[in-house]
Amino acid sequence: MNFLLKGGLVVDPRLGMVKEVDIRVAKGKIVEIGSHLESAGDDEQEELINVEGKIVAPGFIDMHVHLREPGGEAHETILTGCQAAAAGGFTVIAAMPNTQPCADNEGVIELIKVRAQKADLVQVLPIGTISKERKGQEISEMGSLFRAGAVAFSDDGSGVVSSEVMRRALEYAKILDAPIISHCEDTALAGDGLMHEGYWSTDLGLRGIPAQAEEIMVARDILLAELTGGKLHLAHLSTAGSVALLRFARERGIMVTAEATPHHLLLTDEEVKLQSYATSTKVNPPLRSQADVEALRAAVKEGLIGCIATDHAPWSEEEKEQEYAKAPFGIASLETAIPIVWDTLVVKGKMNPLELIARFTTGPAEVLGIEKEKGFFAVGRTADITVIDPQMKKAVNANVFYSKGKNTPVDGRAFQGWPVMTIVGGKIVMRDGIVKGDKN
Amino acid sequence: MGIKEKDLLTMEQLDREQIELILHTAKEMKSIIKRDIKKVPTLRGKSIVTLFYEPSTRTRTSFELAGKYMSADMVNINTTASSVVKGESLKDTGLTLQAMGLDIVIVRHSMAGAPAMLGSYLEARVINAGDGFHQHPTQALLDMLTIQEHLGGFEGLKVAIVGDVLHSRVVRSDLNGLITMGAKVTICGPATLIPPGLEEMGAKVTYNLEEAISDADVIVMLRIQLERQKAGFFPSLREYSQYYGLNKERLSLASKDCLVIHPGPINRGIEISGEVADSLNSCINEQVTNGVAVRMALLYLMLS
Hints:
heterodimer, A: alpha/beta, Urease, subunit C, domain 1, TIM Barrel, 2 domains, 7-stranded mixed β-sheet, 5-stranded parallel β-sheet, globular, B: alpha/beta, Rossmann fold, 12 helices, 40% helix
């Protein structure tokens, strides 16, 4: 299908471009970028798509998604996860390996690729495990996983307890020039904590997870990155202390990148109180204090944290409708990420669209080593495009999520700035909230 | 006038007026308990369930008697024998109870927030009989009734709460209630068992027992659970007792008519010496009576 996106405001962080230009797409590729392009008309079978008042950005990349398949199909499948990604405005997602079995072998990597191709919606980049069976004891066959298609390595969901194993992983991944994505959590210190340790954990009688449970591992991994020269990426940073440590790393010239999630940029630990123990507020790392939220927002604006990633963690209602202590950690966030951050950081904050879009495009593309292919506009390149309506204001309705996970703490809350079109490889996979192939 | 919100989950939700009303009503209820024939028809035709997910003799019996003295139909759900053991979720239990048309569900649960969750599925009113380390409002109310009876009021009263604060649902409830009523509360325990944020809630915090109980009008001693030592919160019971055990010598630092209360059951010789427990200062048995009275008052106020 060929089409002309006409009248939109094109925002491309790589080129530093914010300009009203039109984009012509044919046979899956961008064929022309320019002002006042004329529609080729019906003869060329080209659709004219009016995107006046909309923002046209390079396809958004979410480098931290839990698709649950294989093993957790009650919570999400590769198909429903891809539908949720398309609905949420993402063109590329990276799949975390903590499935059952986990992606510590080529078979699981192949399965993810095959099922993602079958879903035929967004591009899925598999992530392999750091250690065999995610036990943190022996490093996985990273080379084989890489050849099979893994773009990064992570034991996300658990911290790598042994500094020795983490050191070897950072070193070994240098052969592949692939990043190690660290879930920074001192398991013993976090203990069986359920929420951020502070005033509200005391008030609610829930065991706390201190900020230091994250920061200790952030510090350790930064020092190991210095020791090894490996590529370290810090997942879902949540505290002001982690931001300070990241700054320390940058100043020392250590190669470290980082991401923050929409929920950590929006909500504080008080949310658990306000929502009276709603388990949709239970997430790891936990929602933190106001000072932490502000430090994260500043770091994202500054670019110290170069990526926004969802940590989409869908759970079935049965899993989440339990006592707070029993319910699993996680928030389903693919379909709310853009509105949450647009509203919080652009509409109400001080970020300009160019900065924000960079965190979803050039930022993650560079971490994943796909920056030559993805995250910018150029004639001849594959057409991956996200279109956002910066004026659209509506309330989140978890019941209409494509994701099987309805576990969101922002259900019913209104946000301004929603994705209205997702284009992957020149195919429109989402239009006005409706995902391709959806019969409703 | 009664309890404003549907469910009684915390002491935080009760204002001064409501606490005064409950305590006043409880005093009237106490006269019923002292009668020879302890039965009034006040709650005839009302049905109340006690749903305890944790073992408890004291609190459960207390609620059960409170309901029976007022002629309510009382049902105990024994969770070890019920469908809970078969894996029924709290939600499904809630929906089943809802279908039974109960008036009040009294719930105890080892996990904080479970009564709030149950309340969200029920039209029946829920009373929290203790949830995890969160709250235990009826314990606070009975503590407050005892304090009021002995000392007349709360304004400016110096109260020390001593022990394992981190794992105590009683502390949070006592603290909320006492501060609402104008008392000055000092919290004391080993640093490993003191959670953050207590000062923001209006309490003074110290690790020094002598300092905490100096000139205190009331000392609330918390039960220390033996398994906390194994979890590494303090090195030994011997050392705990040396630093935080209440004995006669230490008690002499408190005000002359100092009232010592303990939610029970006591670990004699650990958090409280046998001597102190037996002494006139302590009113542990009186607490049991007050527990029934306060629960009668609550059931009455929530159902009338």
